[in-house]
Structures are given as C-alpha cells and as structure tokens.
C-alpha cells in the first residue's frame, strides 16, 4: 500500500495508525502547495480533490478522506484494538468522535490556513476552535484517551489536528486534560516513528 502525505497535515493521522497497526505502507510525498509529487507527477491525477491523505492499495484502488482511511487500516489489523468491531455501539461512538474532529476541529482550522483570509475574521474562527477544544478537554477528564483507556484511530486524528494550533494562534495550552493527552500520545513509539519519518521531531 501507498500513503500519499504532506508533513504534519491531516495525513499524519493515517500514517500514525498504519504504524500502530503494524502495516507496511510506502510513503509518497505530495506537496499541498504545488500539487506535485517529487517526480513531478500532477497530484490531481492521483486525487482530483487535490488533498491528502490518499491510500492506494496494491491493486490500484484509492481511498480518500482521513476518517475512512483510518477505519479501513484499523480493520486490517483488528487485534490492534485501534477500532471497535463494526456494528457495535463502541464503533458508533468512535465514528461520532471522528465526525466531530473532522467537521468541528479539522475544518475549523481551514479558514486560518487560507491565504487572503481577512484578519478581522480570524479571531472569530479562533474563538470557535477554542470552544470546541474546551469540550474535548472536558470529555478527556479522567480518561487516557477519547474512548477510555484504549488508544484508537480517533486519538491519532485528534493529536494531529491539535498540533496545528501553534501555527495559527490557537493556544490550547490552558486545557490540562488535552495537554496530558497530547503528551501521552506523543510518547507512543509509533507516533514518534511517524513524526520522525515526516521530519517533525525537534532534535
């Protein structure tokens, strides 16, 4: 399998999941700015949406959208515990978290990364994100991870998205439960390996 990624982007989430699951995935760097691969290939020929991540199977089939990809990867390695079994109440809870992260957090950051966004609007987007992170912080009270004591694909996604605050002025440091969660996830060997592979570890 191949995973088309850009360092630190939302593709970090399936990258972490693949390593947590013990799956062999070849990383293919795709520039989110130039929309080119390192060999000059037009990334739009890989994904017409022009965004990472893209998971390409050995048979050539491609899957896009991070929440779909991480669940697919988790189901390839059920013993990893990265996702509860399909059809269970717990799996619905996991999907609830994935949907919240993708719609309320991930997309909440988009305007702050958009070139030309008027400065006057940015405080509104930051405030909304902080409101959402406050909710997450409350939900992490007394728990190691979003679903309890088991690390799941939702945690990989939350960790990835919560990294972005430092680049756009969204200060999540005051949220103690979230800070403890981020430290806990960051220390996981698979996460360290993914960060190192993407050149994101500060030496």
UniProtKB/TrEMBL annotation:
Keywords: Transferase. Coiled coil: none annotated. CDD domains: GST_C_Beta, GST_N_Beta. It holds the Pfam family GST_C. InterPro entries: Glutathione-S-Trfase_C-like, Glutathione-S-Trfase_C_sf, Glutathione_S-Trfase, Glutathione_S-Trfase_N, GST_C, Thioredoxin-like_sf. GO terms for molecular function: transferase activity. The keyword Acetylation does not apply. It comes from the Bacteria. Residues 87-203 form the GST C-terminal domain. Residues 1-81 form the GST N-terminal domain. Belongs to the GST superfamily. This is Glutathione S-transferase. It comes from Roseateles asaccharophilus.
């Amino acid at each position: 399998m191949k995973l088309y990624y850009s360092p630190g982007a939302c593709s970090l989430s399936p990258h972490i999941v693949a390593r947590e699951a013990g799956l062999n995935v070849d990383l293919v760097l795709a520039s989110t700015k130039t929309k080119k691969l390192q060999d000059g290939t037009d990334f739009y020929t890989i994904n017409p949406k022009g965004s990472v991540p893209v998971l390409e199977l050995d048979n050539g089939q491609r899957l896009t959208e991070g929440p779909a990809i991480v669940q697919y990867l988790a189901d390839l390695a059920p013993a990893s515990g990265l996702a509860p079994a399909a059809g269970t109440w717990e799996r619905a809870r996991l999907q609830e978290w994935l949907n919240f992260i993708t719609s309320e957090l991930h997309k909440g950051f988009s305007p702050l990364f958009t070139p030309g966004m008027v400065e006057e609007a940015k405080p509104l987007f930051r405030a909304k994100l902080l409101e959402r992170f406050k909710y997450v912080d409350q939900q992490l009270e007394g728990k190691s991870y979003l679903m309890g004591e088991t690390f799941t694909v939702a945690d990989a996604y939350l960790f990835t998205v919560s990294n972005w605050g430092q680049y756009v002025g969204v200060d999540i440091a005051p949220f103690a439960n979230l800070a403890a969660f981020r430290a806990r996830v960051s220390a996981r060997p698979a996460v360290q390996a993914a960060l190192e592979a993407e050149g994101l570890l500060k030496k």
